Amino acid sequence: MPDGYTVSSSDPNLRIYEPDQVLIQEDTDGDGSIFILHEGTLGVFKGPEQVAEITAPPATGAILGEMSEILGVPRTASIKTMEDFDERGDSIECKVYVYTGGLESIVQDTPEIAVRIMESLATRLQDTTNLHKSEADRAGKIEDRMGKFRKQAQSFKKESETNEKKLTQVKSHLEKQKGILGMIPKKELLELVQ
């Protein structure tokens, strides 16, 4: 099997990949290809570390590589085919639609891809917005907790200062008592204690 895949006889854009095949290499320039996961599982890697896994959702598939093509920037992660199994333990083939020729050509030849790309980008934008909102909410909660901790710390400080004043008063009182006790003969003190 050349390049770790076979081309489907029913659709020249559909490729059936073996496990561990690199579809996209991180930090490389786009080559005019856009990928749509049709079936199976892909791993997302930053350097040698796998950071996510993509499984084909029913009927839609995940679009990959479009950001690099749209923005003209290097690929932000590596994408690799993964070995996957169904509930019976049978191997699931990794089937990926691969469209080549550059973004304009792909959209012109396959207009439905443009709609899919827009949907994908809108979903990513919504997910990013939700993530930022969630992080902002979390930061707000942390700030609220910090405010409560500051109030508690101020309260503890006041309480500590009050206790320090009371302790100073008690020490002063004891010093006075010590002075008074020093005037009483020891014999009388012992009689008072017993």
TrEMBL record:
Residue ranges occupied by any Cyclic nucleotide-binding domain in the UniProt entry: 17-84
Pfam families xref list: cNMP_binding (PF00027)
CDD domains membership: CAP_ED
Coiled-coil annotated residue ranges, if any: none
Record's protein name: Cyclic nucleotide-binding domain-containing protein
